[in-house]
Amino acid sequence: MTAADPIIQTKGLGKSFKGFWAVKNVDLVVQRGTIHALIGPNGAGKTTCFNLITKFLTPSEGTILFKGADITGTKPADVARLGLVRSFQISATFPHLSVRENVRVALQRPLGTSFRFWQSEAALDVLNDRALALLEDVGLTEYAERPAVELPYGRKRALEIATTLALDPEMLLLDEPMAGMGREDIARVSALIRRVAQNRTVLMVEHNLHVVADLSDRITVLARGEILAEGTYAEVSRNPQVVEAYMGTGAGAPEAGAQHA
């Protein structure tokens, strides 16, 4: 397979809630080895589309393909086992376990010992080296023995990415990875995403358009549940329909090439 192969495709994807179509006729193609952003003004259907792809919602119509296989009816846990793993907008960690222990819990799954909290400490020591390597990858080595609840917000998001990477995903789906972050944390997590994307595909929903401009190889813009435009950031930011969609919410698209806010 080459980098130009699609890893995720949706065909005619739609979701109706009591007659209201939150997502309608979405044909999305995410190429292997890219960082692909899904953006749009408030109410555009981004989160619904993301939840459909990750199988946390059931489509009302359409098809979802992962590596060419139909996963439309597959359960979220089974999709994750195929290598399609998501993070969440709200940091999902075990607050009173240490940072290292959080990663170690995620690492248990491939050993067939997932979430067996009653096992002895010694039985899980085999996972420590890998856990510490993942913490080094995301810049959390110095926090390894600290309870997760004590981490600053941006570091919690880095921990969540580490636990997601522990599942060894082929494709990583990030839901608002920069939500609630300050400038320093945004720069740190952006660098982390770029690093982990070197050998996997990333699809992210992100409101921070400066981050999108900086990170994304390709962008899909949604408006009113349908695809409005696709292309590079330079292309979509010059699209009059995209500008109008964002101006209608009181927030115009930034100029192409913008750096972090």
3D architecture notes:
The protein is of the alpha/beta class. It has a domain at 1-76 and 201-261: 3-Layer(aba) Sandwich (Rossmann fold), CATH 3.40.50.300. Helix content is 31%, strand content 23%. It has nine helices and eleven strands. The chain has helices at residues 46-53, 76-81, 99-107, 128-137, 153-165, 183-196, 209-215, 233-237, 240-247; strands at 6-17, 20-26, 29-31, 35-39, 61-66, 69-70, 84-86, 171-175, 201-205, 218-223, 226-231. The strands form two sheets. A six-stranded mixed beta sheet has the order 7-8-9-4-10-11, sandwiched between helices. Strands 1, 2, 3, 5 and 6 form a five-stranded antiparallel beta sheet that branches. A hairpin with a 2-residue loop joins strand 10 and strand 11. Helix 3 (99-107) packs across helix 4. The chain starts with 5 loop residues before the first strand and ends in a 14-residue tail after the last helix.
Q: Which CATH class of the domain at 1-76 and 201-261?
A: Alpha Beta
Strand content: 15-25%
Largest sheet: 6 strands, mixed
User: How do the SSEs run, as a string of H and E?
Assistant: EEEEHEEHEHHHEHEHEEHH
| Total number of helices | 9
Poorly predicted spans: 256-261
End-to-end gap: 37 Å
Mean of all residue-level pLDDT scores: 85
Kindly provide the radius of gyration, computed on alpha-carbon positions and rounded to a whole number of angstroms: 19 Å
Number of strands: 11
CATH evolutionary superfamily of the domain at 1-76 and 201-261? P-loop containing nucleotide triphosphate hydrolases
**Helicity range:** 25-40%
User: What is the CATH topology descriptor of the domain at 1-76 and 201-261?
Assistant: Rossmann fold
Main structural class: alpha/beta
Shape: globular
* Strand ordering within the main sheet: 7-8-9-4-10-11
CATH architecture of the domain at 1-76 and 201-261: 3-Layer(aba) Sandwich
